[in-house]
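Minutes, project huddle
Topic: does the predicted pose make sense with cobalamin bound?
PN asked that the exact inputs be recorded in the minutes so nobody has to dig through chat later. Recorded below.
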Amino acid sequence: MINTIQNKKTITKKIKERAIVEGFSISGIASIPGSSRLKLRTNSLERWLSSNYHAEMKWMEAEKRKNIGTLLKGAKSVLSVGFTYINSQNNNQNNNLKVGKFSQGEDYHKVIYKKLKNIGKWINQEIPDCKWKICVDTAPLLEKAWAEESGLGWIGKNSNLISQKNGSWLTLGFMILTKDLVPDKPHHSLCGKCDKCIEHCPTKAIVEPFVIQSDLCIAYHTIESREKTIPKKIEKNLNGWVAGCDICQDVCPWNKAVPYNNTFETTPKKWINHLNNESLNWDDKTWQENLKGTTLKRIKPWMWRRNIKANLINK
Ligand code: B12
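Predicted holo structure (tokens), as shared on screen:
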């Protein structure tokens, strides 16, 4: 019995260490089905959906999102990882047109997937009877809630997962496992009385602490919305944002002195720091070439033109 517990502890530690070796800045483990906190977060999702805060993102309604067990038969644990994307070459200060820092380098979906796959290969050797499944953003999973449950950090008032050491400049990745592992303790919130994110959001998209109304969020309108035009009340507050928005994270005190991850994966594509109105003349082929390898591919050339024009109207 003691041997089994010891073995479980050792393998848990090794998996988390592998994640750091692969280049993640944080890693943690949660047990499925999770604590009562996870039930609360799932209720929050229900409330969010019934308030229509997902706007046109109908895919957010997938029932599976409420039950991680449906993603892998026999799932017992989750490995959660955070990939730091902030790079000392990110420059949104003096730019005419701005792009969210999470999307300035290599496509984080691919970067995280590749690293997790390496961990998977290692698991195949070490625990051959363990099945695993990788989820990065696109699977119906309440990612921030599971990251919080795994002890990576807490869900901040801006609704992003914040780590005490690494702030919120993290994209998240998950590996669901059929192996029973030792869970980490969920992190408690350290936002305290700070409301900077709520106060600084120019479109008042944080309608109450922790809750984003997507159709008020600049990130939603510039990345997700397929509407032909951007609503006037958003348009006049764009202030240069053409793809995503970092305001609620830029003002967060937990992001003030966090370590950079200056790797090729996070280095901004050259064109991003020089993006200006001339890009309106780029044809679709030029856009495709520039967007290659980045997560910005999701934004179609016509949407870039829509977003840039919307910025110009208020110049
Ligand atoms: C839909 C979506 C969006 C939408 C909606 C945003 C949102 N907050 O839901 C839009 C397009 C607006 C968006 C924007 C961005 N996104 Co986004 N998005 C997602 C996605 C696909 C689902 C999020 C979700 O489940 N929303 C549903 C609602 C119910 O969840 P929620 O806001 O997280 O609500 C939680 C809190 O309210 C909390 N809660 C409720 N009550 C209480 C009370 C207390 C006390 C506490 C502590 C918490 C709490 O519980 C809820 C459920 O977990 C995830 C990937 C995934 N599969 O999870 C990425 C994800 C959240 N996005 C991400 C990123 C990077 C962004 C942007 C920063 C990009 C940018 N620079 O523009 C912005 C940030 C905007 C913001 N402040 O949220 C990262 C966030 C990483 C991190 N550190 O947290 C994720 C995790 C993708 C990834 N794999 O890395 N996104």
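Observations noted during the meeting:
- The CA atoms of residues 206 and 212 lie 5 Å apart.
- Residues 2-21 form the longest helix (20 residues).
No decisions taken; revisit at the next huddle.
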